[in-house]
Batch of 3 targets.
Target 1
Amino acid sequence: TRMDTSNSHEIMINETTPLVPAKGSKKPKTPLPKLQIGLLITLQLAEPIASTSIFPYINQLIRELGITGGDDAAVGYYAGIIDSLFFVGQALTVLKWARLSDRIGRKPVLVIGLLGTCISMLCFGLSTNFWSLVVSRCMCGFLNGNVVVMKTMMGELTDSTNMAQGFALIPIVWCIGGFVGPLMGGTLARPQDHWPALFSGSFWRNYPYFLPCGVAACLLVLALVMMTIFLEETLSTKRRPKFTSTTVSVSSSPDRELLVKSSMANMPLRSLLTRSVVIPMTNYAMLSFLDVSFRVLLPLFLSTPTYLGGLGFDPATIGLWMALVGITDGVFQAFFFARITDWIGPKRLFSVSVWCYPPLVAMFPIMSWILRARGEVDYTITFALLFLICIEVIWDMGYGAVFMFITASAPTNNVLGAINGLGQTSAAVARAIGPALATSLFAVSKEHNLLGGNAVYIVLIVLSGGLRWLAYQLPDEVPDRD
């Protein structure tokens, strides 16, 4: 214990307090809290599995419900609306959930989010018309603040020395979910066709897409139980203090620290919108817009009949290809993201990722041209899809990089939830616009043969230029959070 003789206050020091390194020296990396982060990423895994499991069959579901009146080219309009509704709901409420988590704690908000997602998935599986699909997706968006809370918890479990390792896990989890979800959705959709002896009842004929939704709901319940029992609260004002033998009492006023933290947590949002906060958020929003546009176009392109310029795959084949995208992406992120970040830095990595978007989108018309030239789906299409996966792996590293900039922009950890909430709100707005815009442009391009049916790809490539400009505005280094 050291005494501050000028103010006659004791300063609390415990065995976890880092020493200030000499100027110019590199801080040693703090070991990650493996148990808590392991639990956190397990919870995160349930979300992408649930959200991506609908992708392989959503276009076929829309056709079977008769929404388009038999017009295959119009499927994109309705698929885009359904994909966008989740993000509309999230954009309207995620900031409220983030601010609430700064006051009542992270775990209570996670409970609400997991329950809301579980109920909405069950409703989606029981939907028999377009409006029931709309209600279930809106419910999922309104009740779900999990993404922003989990990012906030990751920020609270890491510091400036191990942030790259921690945030590298977030896209990895989504990649693994992107592997399991489509594979599960494509395989379990219409189970009466695949396993007629097990699923021969009238229920499965009336609700042929309930099984993947029900399995996703069970995973969410399991995640909820694990979180309730094992996950610790990370909000400093709500967690129980852990005293060690070297901890001493008390500093100047027992309530002073809590008072400062509480006042920071209730800061007006406008005061947080500084340039150092807005620039990373804008990059995240634009990245989300372009990424979700690509992700909704991929299954739509794969399922579109060949005479309209698609590949004409069935849901099971789409699920396999999207699963391959997810697992390849996840493995690469797990082994190489932190190393590449340490090697070239977060800003340069983000810039490299951004430059991959034009060739990524250009693969769609290239595959259409190959299919017309070859007359059938053969090994050349397979190689083209594998090349697309390689480009997407590099593109996805942009998420881990921009998360580091957003987290480091928070003035204190007690407004980290609000900062992540603002970022997630901007991303949710972008993701609400992206699917409807991209799929509608796809449908219009095909219906009216705009630029040979490729107008949607040209528009997205042009818009990616805005993200390249925004990437240059990021600081050269991630600010030191400590």
Target 2
Amino acid sequence: MEKTLNRIHPVSDPEATYFLQVSWEKDLGTGFGVTLSDGQCAWTGTVSEAEISREADDMEMNREKYVEELKKALIAGEESAGKYNFAIS
């Protein structure tokens, strides 16, 4: 299993710091787990392969392109810093 951990500062609260961990088995496109923490609380969830396909369809985006964008936003870290915004609600 592969994992990444990134520090994010959401646009909804730029002074706050959150930590986003993403874990996956073979490829992000086959589904992944997420853990979001503010240092005091943590929230976890999973995203299935079917949910990824459904979201790509909803966005009218090629599935492979959508998975590449997910990789950039969720696991690329410093190389994508400033290119993606996160909002916590």
Target 3
Amino acid sequence: QRVLRLAEMCRRLQTEEEKVLPFYSSSLAEGEQQEAQRVLEEAPTEPLAQALQDYLGLELFWQLFNKAKLEEQALGLEQQALRERNQQLRELLGQYLAGISGSQEVPGEPKPL
């Protein structure tokens, strides 16, 4: 039930573009795509493959979930880079303000900037 609620929440938050074209095009060649489709249509013989066949309906959910996780990680990396840049700018601003204020402890030292 939790997965179904998450899927419904994801559906409501999708943009119009994602509803029409939710994923990037496949990087497989035409022949590879046909081979993959043929393998998917075959009846599974191994027990694990049979169990996975029961969950094919969740494939779209997992694709959306994985896409969201990748975007979350990318945004986290971008946020960290922005934090670091912000810290650098704060340090530069501090040096600039210290340089123009004229409040130096040792009068003979050159100004920071």
